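Components:
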Amino acid sequence: MKILLVYPQHPETFWSFNYALKFIGKKSAFPPLGLLTIASLLPEHWQLKLVDMNVDKLREQDLHWADYVFMSAISIQRNSVLSIIEQCQKAKVKIVAGGPLFTTAYSDFSGIDHFILNEAEITLPQFIHELQQGNPRHLYRSDQLSKLSQTPIPRWDLIRQSKYASLSIQYSRGCPFNCEFCDITLLYGHKTRVKSQSQIISELDQLYKANWRGSIFFVDDNFIGNKHKLKKYILPAITEWMQQHRHPFNFFTQASINLADDDELLKQMVTAGFDTVFIGIESPNEESLTECLKNQNTNRDLIASIKKCQQAGLQVQGGFIVGFDSDPLTIFDQHIRFIQQSGITTAMVGLLNAMKGTLLFQRLEKENRMLKTSTGNNTDCSINFIPKMDLQALLTGYKKIITQIYSPPNYYERVITFLKNFNIPRFRSFQLRFSLIMAFLRSIIILGIIGKERLYYWKLVFWTIFHRPVTFPLAISLAINGYHFRKVFENTHL
Ligand code: SF4
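Structure:
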């Protein structure tokens, strides 16, 4: 059996980091971890090829080679998925599809031969068995959640590592919280399921043996969902491994804000090599947080929690949402003030949209406020339900936030606010790589000579050299990220 694994293209968004990736000569931020894991679940004697359309073109000859195309996608890849289906139909190759987009919305797609939904560790073996018997079904689903002890190491040999800025590991699935707009618990449940210490160490070994050095993204939606196991087994094991291997990786992940309440956990994560964490802040407005059931963010000083993580040695990236029913007309200025004060440089602000199956979707449907399917891109100024606030006021306010927080004076001021508060642990040494030297030289030309922000760029360079020289590489990479955000916004919204 010849299987072509196809990963659809991500459109240009804040998350694509495409303008920043050009500085370091990379094509994509992350590899398709799900498909690489699926590849490991397929029979060993099957022949496999992978085309990540964020890195390579899907060629006709690849489609003609394949007996089946296996595709996995998230909602933002919807348009690319539709064009892949068309290409496969022309080439008369059968399609097998799975992953979050199809699990929540498979009925939106015609032209797919087999859907392998929910968790592939459970549904994929059933499909393979019935395919080998000659009678595969159209739809495979399961309410069961797999034990992650059954999840194999991804087939890293199928990608060209050098095209990616970061590689990935999944430690856990599920989240104990219940945010109204989120589909993670719908897909993976409230109980946090985790891999064992030995699985994580094997994955680190595998990446090390494959000569990867640098950034690794722990893709978990909430890395601290099971703090007990993390603190007792996983972080101590990663710390020991990193010390034995002379810190070849730096890690980043996603977590809930209650990370800031646990001094020991913060310390353990930083000691293990974590330098960045993405946290869903969502809103500075307490009523909006209560409305969306983001209870872990209420009754606390959010800025103090963020500063605590930064002081411990973690850069905090933040997710923010506007468009809640409880948002007042002053919400846009509140967001701008909050983001500036927090020193969150990578502030991903999006418009609220209701993903199929979420509690929010169910509520809005009951209220007859749903309009259409979400594009999955919460930064493209689309909104798929009738908001309480006047739509025009909401869109104007949203654009005001983005224009202001990524304007060079505000963005660079925020970088300095962050660097002043950020503590880099002593053991975290900077490893000079060719790609980083090139990125610095490119930043001099693109940001320091021809860029609109050149004045602010040089101010940051000199401020960093004189006040926080140890943060210099980070300052340059943040300047580059700011350029990406501005370019995306200019291209899509102005
Ligand atoms: S904390 Fe994050 S992953 Fe968990 S339910 Fe809320 S938004 Fe989803």
